[in-house]
Amino acid sequence: MHEHTEHMTDEEIVSMALRDKAFFGHIVFRYEDKLSRYVLRLGVRNAEDRQDVLQDIFIKIYKNLNGFDTSLSFSSWVYRIAHNEAISAYRKKNVRPEGHLIDEGDEWVARESGALDTAEELFDQDINAQELQKGMTLLDDKYRSVLILRFFEHKEYEEISDILKIPTGSVGTLIHRGKSQLKKKLEEEHLRI
User: Fold this and answer.
1) % of the chain at pLDDT higher than 90
2) What pTM was computed for the model?
3) Which residue of 64, 84, 127, 170 has the fewest C-beta atoms within 10 A of its own C-beta?
4) With 0-12 CB in 10 A as exposed, 13-18 as middle and 19+ as buried, what is 114?
5) CA 14 vs CA 1, 22, 63, 122, 157: distances in Å
């Protein structure tokens, strides 16, 4: 089923799904793992809760597929929906997102906190992911979100702007302030990465 669409662009798959709803499964296949990791990083740690949030995300995508603005990146649009649904899940439970880190994102913290000069050097270093995770939980939500998108999801500034609905210039400012806050929090808590 997915062999025929693996080399197609998102926009081509969306176009097919708009003509034949059966093709929506290709969108789910392409984004399910990515969005699951993203929702996990935003703090939805419980597997059942994460599945519920993913289901809500794909239902919203399905219902709104006709309204997708083709002038935007489909990926950005999908991540925006995922972001809103994950945050909404926390508001329903009245719990502050804690953020969950996966080892692949450790490079940015080490690099940006001054521990390493280049990302390549990270691969020769041992980063304490648990300490990093604790530091991330202490960040303001606005900083955590932008840092996760930039350094864990590898999104460009323009995509982050689309996802979070903030000006592109603000993305850079939030990343800079988030890195500074993280460094300060790590120092205050005597956390070592």
Assistant:
1) 44
2) 0.71
3) 64
4) exposed
5) 15, 11, 13, 38, 24
What sections of the chain are H helices per DSSP? Answer: 10-19, 24-41, 47-64, 74-93, 106-112, 119-122, 129-137, 141-147, 157-164, 168-188
119 vs 189: CA distance, rounded Å:
25
How many whole angstroms separate alpha carbon 163 and alpha carbon 57? 14
Q: Are 160 and 90 in contact (CB under 8 A)?
A: no
Asked whether residue 168 carries a pLDDT value surpassing 60, the answer given is yes
Percent of the chain with pLDDT over 70: 76
pLDDT of residue 128 exceeding 90, the answer is no
Domains of the chain: 10-93 (1.10.1740.10), 103-188 (1.10.10.10)
